[in-house]
Amino acid sequence: MKNKIAIASAFVAASSFSTAEIVVNDFLSFEGFVDMSYTHTDSEFAGDEGNENSFAIDQVEISWLFDFDTVTAQIDFDYEDNDDSTTEVEQAFVTYHMDGGSAVTAGRYASMLGFEAFEPTGLYQYSFGYDMLIGDTSVLPGYAQGVKYTHESDTTFFGLSLQDEAYDNGSDAFGGNPDSTYAVEAAGSVILAEGLTGFLGGVYENGDDVDNYAINAYVTFETGAWIFAAEVNYGDLESGATLGAIGVETAIDAGFGTSANTFAANEEVLQFLLMANFAYSDQASITGRFTYTDHEADLDVAGTAVDLEADAMKFTLAHGYAFTDNLFLVTEVSYVDGEFDTDNAAFAGDDFDGLQGAVELIFSF
Fold first, then answer.
1. Domain, as residue range, for 349
2. pLDDT digits (tens, 9 = 90+) for 172-203
3. How many domains does the chain have?
4. Which three-class secondary structure state does DSSP give residue 132?
5. What is the model's pLDDT at position 175?
6. Which residue, among 245, 234, 291, 240, has the nearest Cα to 262 in the 3D structure?
7. How many CB atoms lie under 10 A from the CB of residue 119?
8. Nearest CA among 218, 117, 239 for reference residue 173
9. What is the CATH number of the domain that holds 184?
10. Per-residue pLDDT tens for 206-227?
């Protein structure tokens, strides 16, 4: 739903780039994409300088779409180049469509929260806004399993989802915890004026030693060849998990988002995003984006209380060009600057920064 609230994708806004379905028969079709990139990163973290070059097939996804009039279904098979480099079922859900714009969906599906799309075919640039080069610091959920009710009209949208969790359990995502019992997500949007859309949503997760919630709000404005967006996120995490024997330094070396989000006994997160996209031709657009994240966490390190504060900002400039309806090139330069600090002399804080250049090629079908 998040892509429908404003503009379907940067490629629709800036070019004729499309992901048209390949029809097999009256009931079955499929679509997908191949995303590949080259990146070069220069960074300094806790006094250590480094640089990295990477060329990879970042993601391959095939979506099977089933249409039986009032009943539709979708199954997404996804490969991502990460630590596991495995192929998985990203989404698998069935939807019953009722009269008047209402629908009920059951299965595994994407969160309704967040301005930025989950897939590269829906982004306005290569990187995600809250990926600060040292890890994903986003407070927003990704995919979950449950039942969802939605109602959509020409000017409004509302959705309510009852889920088994809000965040992928056992992951490094905000609040990831295997003891989650249930989660509720709600979202709504409305067209406020011509070209202006507002969105408000939230998620709550509860379980053994887990009490998490996050709020997401954003507005988008489209005028002529311009698209503007502003977003703010707030999250609060309460968990009985502790750092234990691994130590806060080890966790911080893995990225403050990982240390705070996975092991924090109590954490507050504030984030915001500002973006502008200008389509200067039928095939090309340029995007500027600024994002900021602030984390304050009370940690329990083997019985020692440690207050951790971490913040980072990211500046991004990207250019997109559509060679054809199915082949798109994105170039990007991003700069990240941040710092973390603690109130415990045993765990020293430090600054970090990084500069990344990326060239991304996306083939869709």
1. 2-364
2. 444 444 455 889 999 999 999 999 999 999 99
3. 1
4. coil
5. 42
6. 240
7. 19
8. 239
9. 2.40.160.10
10. 877 778 899 999 999 999 999 9
